[in-house]
Design brief:
Layout (H helix, E strand, L loop, with lengths): L1 H26 L2 H8 L3 H15 L4 E4 L2 E4 L1 H29 L2 E6 L1 H19 L4 E6 L13 E7 L8 E12 L1 H7 L13 E4 L10 H7 L11 E3 L2 H9 L4 E5 L4 H5 L4 E18 L6 H15 L14
Parallel strand pairs: 3-4, 3-5, 7-8, 7-9
Antiparallel strand pairs: 1-2, 5-10, 6-9, 6-10
Helix pairs in contact: 1-2, 1-3, 1-4, 2-3
């Protein structure tokens, strides 16, 4: 413990000098480092000399037109430079967020494409242009320790919702296809008949909780072998585009694919809808005190709770 404390004290005392050391190595002279830090060349020289005394080694060879690293200095630079670069990038990002309010929303591709994007202009109109919105789409939920988001929206079990989280959209899933596909292969009297048709699947990472075709059939009490292999995609937008093109039947999350159905690009293949105890859940970085994320969080929560009234979706029976 004594050695660790001693190293920590040395590091804390030498951190400014290490920064100066990295800058001198970068510029190859004291004057460039002094200008970058806004101090005198003499102050930089004193920092470097103090660091050399502290470490007991010479870090630079003083030459007529500048300095060059010694072997010990080169070894130290390999460790110091990446650390200083990472710290500098982090500080720069925080300063940028302070100067221009920015809200980063993490969600899967389906929610980003079919729920967030259609409402983004309205969100900006209501909250103003002073808040920069960034959407970070990823098929897998971000690691809980990750800090690269302000608001997180992903599918999870409603039974695991914790304090401060908000349930936005319960998972209600129907089988959907293009009207042309249905005309070629329909009518489809029962969901069990889908086992003989081409099914389009969304690849599911182990950490994801959304519905699969197997879970959908299980929810309806349907068992049996499929006659065709799945056509699988790792992006829900590709799944829907393939369904629109008439390649097969896809799972359609009601609340997301509604717009495609209203445009008659997709239609429910059967009347069956499977409702699960999972859905889109929203959380936010509670450590942040910035106003922007709170405003966006509340706007999304209110919009999800009070969606704009829309006509019922067309189904196969209405075609």
């Amino acid at each position: 413990m004594t050695d660790i404390s001693r190293v920590n004290r040395k590091l804390g005392h030498s951190l400014v000098a290490l920064h100066a050391f990295e800058l001198v190595a970068r510029f190859g002279n004291l004057s460039g480092a002094a200008e970058a830090l806004g101090v005198t060349q003499s102050a930089i020289s004193q920092k470097i000399k103090g660091l050399e005394v502290e470490l007991g080694v010479a870090l630079f060879k003083r030459e007529h037109r500048g300095v060059t690293l010694t072997n010990e200095g080169a070894r130290l630079l390999k460790v110091v430079r990446p650390a200083m670069t990472q710290m500098g990038d982090s500080v720069a990002a925080l300063l940028e967020r302070k100067s221009k309010p920015r809200v980063r929303i993490s969600s899967d591709f389906a929610f980003a494409t079919f729920w967030l994007l259609p409402q983004l202009s309205e969100l900006r109109n209501e909250l103003g242009d002073e808040i920069e919105i960034q959407i970070l789409a990823s098929q897998s939920p971000p690691d809980k320790s990750a800090e690269d988001w302000d608001i997180n929206i992903h599918v999870q079990s409603f039974s695991t919702i914790g304090k401060g989280q908000v349930a936005l959209l319960r998972e209600r899933v129907a089988a959907v296809c293009s009207p042309n596909f249905l005309a070629r292969n329909g009518p489809i009297p029962a969901a069990a008949d889908l086992l003989d048709l081409q099914l389009l699947s969304l690849s599911k990472p182990p950490s994801a909780h959304w519905q699969t075709w197997q879970g959908w059939f299980d929810g309806l009490g349907i068992s049996g072998a499929r006659s065709k292999n799945y056509i699988s995609f790792n992006n829900y937008d590709m799944v829907t585009q393939s369904a629109i093109a008439g390649d097969g039947v896809a799972l359609g999350w009601l609340g997301l694919v509604d717009g495609l159905c209203r445009q008659n690009l997709l239609v429910q293949a059967t009347e069956d809808v499977v409702v699960s105890n999972a859905g889109y859940v929203m959380s936010r970085d509670r450590s942040s005190t910035r106003r922007g994320p709170n405003l966006v969080f509340e706007w999304i929560e209110q919009r999800a709770a009070n969606p704009v009234a829309r006509p019922a979706l067309p189904s196969a029976a209405q075609l």
